[in-house]
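Example 5.3 — Deoxyguanosinetriphosphate triphosphohydrolase-like protein
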Amino acid sequence: MSLAPYASHASLSRGRRHAEAPAPTRDAFQRDRDRIVHSTAFRRLVYKTQVFLNHEGDLFRTRLTHSLEVAQLGRSVARALRLNEDLVEAIALAHDLGHTPFGHAGQDALDACMQDHGGFEHNLQSLRVVDELEHRYPRYDGLNLSFETREGILKHCSRANAERLDAAEPGGVARRFIDRTQPSLEAQLCNLADEIAYNAHDIDDGVRSGLIDIERLGELGLFERYRRETLAEFPALRGRRVLYEAIRRMLSAQVYDVIDATSAAIRFAAPSDADAARKAGPLVLFSDTMRRESSELKRFLLRNLYRHPRVTATTDQAKDVVRELFDAYLADAAQMPERHGERTDRHRAVADYIAGMTDRFAIREYERLTGRRWIE
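Solution (predicted structure tokens):
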């Protein structure tokens, strides 16, 4: 399939921070994807929380399975829009590499610990992972990914951090947060595929956990429409098969909506190339109707799942673990591996070490350092 003119073409990449000879059988974005898949940080995602902690059940999503689902959705849409599937996949697989253990609870706790030392942003941490913290190659730190992949990984960034990054890399991946332009269409697509994926799988995991009653989902126009459609076609269907089929149809509807709405936006903006698309404003989007329904779904999940007492009890405990680990390593750097313990930027070294932990390793370290047991 030929790429659209406004897609990101690997042959036109802005390159890597450290020059390398091209690979004989792979283009720049394919090579990025492969480096991400083979990284240590990618393997750790299998034991990092999405909503439910890893030990709470074998079938709940983790950061790894979430990233795979984002990549699958992103590639499907990219193919229809003639965008670069390999770049979409690379960004999707790497977008959560910097996430802490215990999901957003861990991130919030670590940000609070780092409040007087630059804070903590998981998107910025993902960029730090691929730029600095992976130690695999003899000539440089990090994975030395292409500009376009790094640009997509940095989904959000505060103004202060953007200015700091731009000072170190003028005109680099943080510049768009200062100029108020957009990333590539592939990066925009990953942002939306991320939202579509977690909305759908959090419904599934919420019902599986027993925290969301499937009957309550009737409050959601988006979900209820496809549940009714499913039962109209399969009136004898019962239980989880109804849920699975309704979610499948809802996902398909959102994918087709993005394709149609984005195609119309691109036709109107008529970008001549990838850089023109960056300057045209957000082009990968939902229709107005689907955006309203997706927002309703997010509010439903916030009320009924993310703020459920059982979830908040666990996340409160997780925040305590992160805070106590931070204080313990800050007091005694020798408790960390040498590559972290010998650094002079002590607070950031501790944050990097904790952010790289899996849920179960963080719990083991907490129990080792405090002598207290994690209460399940």
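Remark. The chain has two domains: 25-182+310-370, 185-307.
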